[in-house]
Amino acid sequence: MNLREKYNIPNDSIITIAGTVGVGKSTMTKALANALNFKTSFEKVDTNPYLEDFYADFERWSFHLQIYFLAERFKEQKKIFEYGGGFIQDRSIYEDTGIFAKMHYDNGTMSKTDYETYKNLFDAMVMTPYFPHPDLLIYLEGSFDEVLDRIQHRGREMEKTTPIAYWEEMYNRYEDWINNFNACPILRINISDYDLMKEENSVEPILEKIGHFIQQSRRWEARELIK
Ligand SMILES: Nc1ncnc2c1ncn2[C@@H]1O[C@H](COP(=O)(O)OP(=O)(O)O)[C@@H](O)[C@H]1O
Ligand SMILES: Nc1ncnc2c1ncn2[C@H]1C[C@H](O)[C@@H](COP(=O)(O)O)O1
Asked: Sorted alphabetically, which SUPFAM superfamilies does this protein's record hold (predicted)?
């Protein structure tokens, strides 16, 4: 019996990993996909044509970058749907608007007109009954110091030279955002409760929780359908 069967995780599941920059989403995405034999959907970082320019000048590039991320994530979403699920997704589409676009608008690095244009497009594309929401959003959380250490250690130059205040504000916004998030079921995991770098088996307790959560929410959905 493989791990997916052992923990009763449906093979059409769509699981998205959320959390602030550097918390460990990509690492978790790879570990879960590997354990479940699922496909992965990663966000574009190295081949992103706006990201470095954005970090050098938020005001000039924030709207362009949000449009780029929205288009890329929407294409990924379409692919996931066409494959019929069985995916782990690195960062949810909800974070683009709930965290990044809003933060830049609130700080004056995205204009009101650009923010409204972006929000209208996002709502028309994503906040509709036709958009398939994930079965589960796994929210990774840890202390701010751990997150900052990981950003430094990973060593992307554009992130290392960004003021700490930017990461701190983002960290605090994530806490508020997740406490009010309700687009799909959430599983919160603290990064000090596992260590995927040292111990590959530390993914198993997470798989057990995933299986339990998805079974429970699918039972709930089935009951709602026959009401
Ligand atoms: N469980 C872990 N223990 C220690 N270091 C980790 C762990 N998960 C990720 N890292 C390290 O932290 C950094 C950021 O991880 P990454 O998965 O790229 O984060 P994200 O995708 O959330 O930005 C990387 O250097 C990665 O190797
Ligand atoms: N929607 C976004 N707006 C601005 N910046 C973003 C957005 N989504 C991701 N990013 C940035 C943050 C990081 O520098 C890289 C990759 O994110 P990570 O959390 O390391 O996967 O892109």
From this structure: P-loop containing nucleoside triphosphate hydrolases
Ligand with smallest separation from the Cα of 138 = 1
Tokens, residue 45:
């970082």
- Residue whose C-alpha is closest to residue 101's, from 115, 113, 90: 115
Cα separation of 198 and 117, whole Å?
A: 45
Question: Which residues, including other chains, have CB under 8 Å from residue 62's CB and lie 6 or more apart?
Answer: 54, 101, 104, 109, 110, 114
Among residues 53, 90, 114, 135, the one annotated as catalytic is 90
**What is the distance between the alpha carbons of residues 134 and 77, in angstroms, rounded to a whole number?**
10
Nearest CA to ligand 2 atom 16: 45
Does ligand 1 have an atom closer than 6 angstroms to the CB of 202? no
| Active site annotation includes 53 | no
What the block records as the tokens of 176 is 């508020």
Which amino acid is located at 171 in the chain?
Answer: Y
Ligand 2 atom, smallest distance to 23 CA: 19
The CATH class of the 3-225 domain is alpha beta
- Residue closest to 73 by CA, chosen among 54, 87, 59: 87
Q: 25: CA distance to ligand 1 center in Å?
A: 7
**Residue extents of the structural domains in the chain:** 3-225
What is the predicted pLDDT for the residue at 195? 85
pLDDT tens digits for range 63-83: 999 999 999 999 999 899 999
Amino acid residing at 40: T
Query: What pTM did the predictor assign?
Result: 0.95
Q: Whole-angstrom Cα distance, residue 217 to residue 136? A: 9
